[in-house]
Design a protein that fits this description.
22% of the residues lie in helices and 32% in strands. By secondary structure, the chain is of the alpha/beta class. β3 and β4 form a beta hairpin.
């Protein structure tokens, strides 16, 4: 089992969530292209979190026949144990997403009960979504 140490606190990270969904995004405007299962680790002292423990292969890839159905199922899950995170692969100050994509994401996440991290507040640039 891998271990990780917080540089700031010199303390071992602990697993706080196994099997979180991580959606890799590419292109501009960003599009989902791979969905992974991975673990979220947190520093018990400062609360910083990282994602690691990715499998050797993604669960789903964009060229696969039912990628969209799986993406919609994950994004629309009502299960609060289904964590969803986004990976933009490189730092961005802001991301220009087209309006239809943002609107679709807002509609999906409006009903979602699970935690969603990162994607929309970056996409929306100060909108009312979090
Ligand atoms: Zn720490």
């Amino acid at each position: 089992m891998a271990k990780a140490i917080c540089v700031y606190c010199q303390t071992e990270f602990k697993i706080i969530k196994t099997g979180a969904y991580v959606i890799d995004m590419f292109l501009q405007p960003p599009q989902p292209y791979k969905i992974w299962s991975a673990d979220v680790w947190g520093c018990p002292r400062c609360g910083k979190q990282i994602v690691q423990g990715f499998g050797s292969k993604p669960l789903y890839e964009h060229f696969e026949e039912n990628f969209k159905e799986n993406l919609d199922r994950i994004l629309g899950s009502k299960n609060e144990d289904d964590w969803v995170l986004f990976n933009y692969e490189k730092p961005v100050d802001f991301i220009m997403a087209d309006d239809s994509f943002i609107q679709k994401m807002k509609e999906i996440f409006k009903e979602a009960k699970h935690p969603v991290f990162g994607g929309l507040n970056i996409l929306q640039k100060g909108g009312d979504f979090q």
